[in-house]
Specification:
With 232 residues, the protein is of the alpha/beta class. It has one domain (39-231): Rossmann fold (3-Layer(aba) Sandwich), CATH 3.40.50.150. It is built from seven helices and eleven strands. The strands form two sheets. Strands 6-7-5-4-8-9-11-10 form an eight-stranded mixed beta sheet, with helices on both faces. Strands 1-2-3 form a three-stranded antiparallel beta sheet, with no helix packed on it. Strand 6 (137-139) and strand 7 (142-147) form a beta hairpin. The chain is globular, with a radius of gyration of 16 Å. The two termini are 30 Å apart. The relative contact order is 0.16. The protein binds S-adenosylmethionine. S-adenosylmethionine (SAM) is lined by residues 8, 34, 44, 71, 73-74, 76-77, 97-100, 150-152, 166-168, 173.
Length: 232
């Protein structure tokens, strides 16, 4: 179990190849990966883009969304969101928080870019890693900002329409799946906002309901029976 004394930042990370051929990172000390072993890109695309971003856009007649991501990690969700927003021709503001940033060397060694779809947009993947923390990166109606902060203390003056909750799993970081963190998610969202995660744990579903979300159990990505989506 993770605690603050064994900072994730300094933990060795091993590159793994996932089921769809795309890479991810594995942290031995947490027994945890950054993405599903069954397919990193497949999972991100299914959970966050299809069941989160696309779902919200369809409900809201293509209105311009504000997206918040908990855990920038490799930048995969941010990149897929950029490509998706361009494809659907919507303006999008995307804010991602990360407490334990990967170094540029770690990102480059991972080789995620080689596996990403839409090579014509790969420059955005480089840019999102190169841009300074706290600075806006504006590209084709997509405004991206990453914050090097702890999710628990991040303070933002606007609320969000879509929240990608991509924390490490319960066994690695249980505090991310308990009431304090989930209440923070609720507070960050607009009424009608959509919270989405690969997680399907019963205690998380019940806690989301207790806080006031309407929660759906959806079919999961490959290798996972279910996932959760919650509406404020
Ligand atoms: C499952 S990985 C996210 C993968 C990422 N979304 C991607 O597309 O590659 C979880 C991420 O959350 C970050 N994290 C863990 N605890 C955090 C916290 N308290 N605040 C902000 N980020 C945190 C980790 O450093 C890690 O990058």
């Amino acid at each position: 179990m993770f605690n603050e004394s064994n900072g994730i930042l300094s933990m060795p990370k091993k590159i793994i190849k996932t089921g769809d051929g795309s890479p991810s990172l594995y942290i031995d000390q947490l027994n945890e990966t950054y993405h599903s072993k069954h397919g990193a890109i497949t999972e991100s695309d299914y959970v966050y883009i299809k069941k989160g971003f696309a779902y919200w856009l369809d409900l809201n007649n293509q209105r311009a969304p504000r997206v918040f991501e908990m855990g920038l990690g490799t930048g995969l969700n941010a990149y897929l969101s950029y490509v998706f927003a361009l494809d659907r021709k919507v303006l999008c503001e995307y804010v991602s928080v990360e407490k334990y940033p990967l170094s540029i060397d770690e990102v480059q060694s991972l080789g995620m870019k080689d596996a990403l779809p839409s090579p014509e947009h790969h420059h955005f993947f480089d840019q999102l890693h190169e841009v300074d923390w706290g600075q806006n990166l504006s590209q084709s109606d997509f405004v991206f900002k990453k914050l090097e902060q702890d999710f628990f203390s991040v303070a933002l003056d606007q609320s969000f329409d879509i929240l990608f909750y991509d924390a490490f799993g319960y066994h690695a970081q249980s505090e991310m799946w308990q009431e304090k963190a989930l209440q923070k998610c609720y507070d960050l969202l607009q009424p009608g906002g959509v919270w989405v995660s690969y997680c399907a744990k019963g205690s998380v579903r019940r806690c989301l309901e207790k806080i006031g979300f309407s929660v759906e159990r959806l079919e999961g990505p490959p290798g996972k029976r279910e996932m959760l989506r919650a509406i404020k």
